[in-house]
Amino acid sequence: MSDGIRWIGEHSGQSPDTRIPGMLGGISLTAARDIDAEDFLTLLGAEPLQLDAGHLFKDRRSVTLPDGVNPRGVKYAMYGTCKDWVYVLEDWGMATWHLHRYGGPLTPVLAEVETVCLSNNSDAPPPRIALTTSEGRIVGAEFGEDTGCGSALDEALQRAGAVFPSVRDLPQDEVELYWERHIEELPAAVFSAVEAYCGLSVDRAAVEAGDLPVAVLFPLA
Description:
This protein is an alpha+beta fold. It has helices at residues 6-10, 37-43, 48-53, 96-102, 152-159, 172-182, 186-198, 204-209; strands at 28-33, 75-82, 85-90, 115-119, 128-132, 138-142, 214-217.
């Protein structure tokens, strides 16, 4: 049976566990369609030579950093491919793509690359969804909302029960009660929707074991 990606959402509220060699809690996901994995990771701040070295995430501490680079300034990501998507997993608090792209263009190369990002935003909640369409438009929403653009992703969010009522739909007290009752289910529903939209599946055992390749993301100027 396929692992899908719902399991990532089910563990979104957990803090990362440094005792395991890979990841489980608090993972952010970025997936990009029809772009070479090395090209996408380079745009996020990885060095091509480091990617060519082929280190696994569990061996990330053995990656040699360039002279003068502060180890505290780099972020370690895990990546892989599924169908026509490349995906990047990060558990340091948010997604690099969301940090640098959603607030403004990272590079024109990404302008027409369809990208879906689920950023945990543990240091600055709430978690957010961001979508770049193939036309280059970037839309986003907090977990519990859709992007408002009527996309296939919005439809998937609705079907998965990942769009919660707002005060525009119901009285505020009813909305607050609904959120209180269902908030713990929300991340899993959001990841289920993205799974349905992208057809993504990520091997949970490999992620926990750190058996996927590592990308060291250096600070972007």
